Amino acid sequence: MTIEWRYTDYPALGVLSVSGHLSGQAAARFAGAVGRVEARGTGPLILDLAALQGWSVEGQDAIADAAARLAACGRSVELAAIPADGSLVPGAGQPHIPVHPDLDSALATHHMH
């Protein structure tokens, strides 16, 4: 199973909505999406995972890698609506990744709706 993604660029942040199952097989597609986001957007990136059906350890690692990649560019990553089957725990030395219950809450944190 793979993922589908859609990017929405707001004036002060971006939202990458991801659906499907983020597994090791889908990690390269996800990394490609993050590469496009890195080239197009500015400010924090909110990963909207409301439509994500699940994620593997490799998928979680891909998110942590994306957070590190964007942190190197001065951008942060936040998660909205993580899958019920787990939580993301960044490794030592990786950037902190805030988690919001849903996209509306994440946008409200940045005074956007």
From TrEMBL:
Which Pfam families does the record match to this protein? STAS (PF01740)
Region span, Disordered = 93-113
Please give the name of this protein. STAS domain-containing protein
Residue ranges constituting the STAS domain according to the UniProt record: 10-83
**InterPro entries reported in the protein's UniProt record:** STAS_dom, STAS_dom_sf
